[in-house]
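name: query_chain
kind: protein
chains: 1
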Amino acid sequence: MFATTIRRQSTRRRRSALAVLLAFALVLAACGGDDDTDDEASTTTVEETAEAETETAPEESEDGDSPFPVTLTQQLGEVTIEAEPTSIVALDLWSLDFLTELGITPTAAYSFGPVPGWLGDELDGVQPEPLTGDLPLEAIAAAEPDLVMDISGFFTAFSPEVGGTLTEIAPTVSPPVDGFSDPWQDRFRHLGAAVGRSEDVETIITETAAELEAIRTEFPALDGAAVTFARFNTSSSTVDVVIDDSDFTRAFMNGELGFTTPAAQIEAFANDEGEKTGGALQVSLEQVALVGEDADAVVMFVDGDPAALTEQELWQSLDVVAEDRVVFVGLDGVFAVRTPSPTSIAYLAENVLPPLAAAVSGEGASSVASSDGGAAETVLDAAAAEGSTLLATFAAFSPAFNEAINGPGPVTAFFPSDAALTDAPPEVADGLRNDPVLLDTVLQYHVTTGVLTAEDIIAAGEIDTLLGEPITVTVDGDTVVLNDGQATVSVADLSAGNGIAHVIEGILFPPSVDVPG
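structure:
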């Protein structure tokens, strides 16, 4: 658990969200060890302290009174927050994103799937608990929150019974009017009022509006472009196409990015030519032509193996495919469009809009590199792209390891590079090859639950693993060292659909076993 804290707001919205291999010396300088916070505080000047208090203090009225108590009208029903919250539980990505933007760290947080890369580096140590089923109401109550945040409305606007239970635990914030269609600015304002930071929110919204204007100036080809936003579901061979402005995704794309909805999709939605969910229309693979009809470009996410779509003849026959007008995105791209925010807008400008503009202008989407590309569905895929392909051949010997790296996650996995495996002493290689129990043990020792970036790893100093035995972490100059020299991290922060991967030089052995040889 993490106590709610207020910290100085950073320039996170302007940081590049490209997937990078950071020099660990820079990472260390950025995040420091466990004692960095105290060291920094001890050297902070009086002027810096005053500045921090000015930036982060709860707002007061002109006569010096606190903005609390505050009563908000919202979709869940009226809510009153009596005093400044000191323990907040965030139930969704949007709430976590907005709180982080304000410099507020929640006591606990939850998330479906991994936290997107454009937000992960800003969480100041918070690792959301993965949600794989029902909301853990008992754990939320045990956190003793004085405020619960669900600004997306997944648990409150769409599940009244759960929302009612949450309100019994603590005052609970839901979408201001409608979980399907409320703009991100209205959600941000609603959340800001709940934590007494309305003035800060207005400042950030104004800054972001200027950034959006600059983005539209930078990509003139996208102004008025007919852009499809779709998802292919491999399990059902269906396609979800976001069409109507009643869905906040479409409203954001059209209203703020300047896109338009392809005419054929508007007609299909009006004629109920598929299954409607909010402002989206789900159609069968046989109707996939709708994705490209009247469209200047397509933004596509594939839920599963991309080949399940790209190798289909129906897909290959589309003009938008033949003319390279499709931009494939991963989960980060989906989150950035589905949950727009100041941080995600900066991410879109860096990773999604350049190839999309190239697609619309006729240069071809693939002519522009994008870090979002959607290629890494699993941590195994991410590691393979950076020189760790051999470990996959051993995965079948450990069901627990195999399920972890190929399952929904979120997980963090350390993958020995191919060179580390082929260059291992013969006795080590033979020991693993000839002892299935040892191999299973070692494989499980390379995985942990949750998403741990390079900064998180360094700050933690010790990492719990799937096996139940820890990995120790130290830093030697520019190098992150694991288990006192068993391995070093060579490629960090490889984002994937089910977590994050790090490539290491060496093989990790838990303390409970003897290294062969």
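note: The two ends are 42 Å apart (CA to CA).
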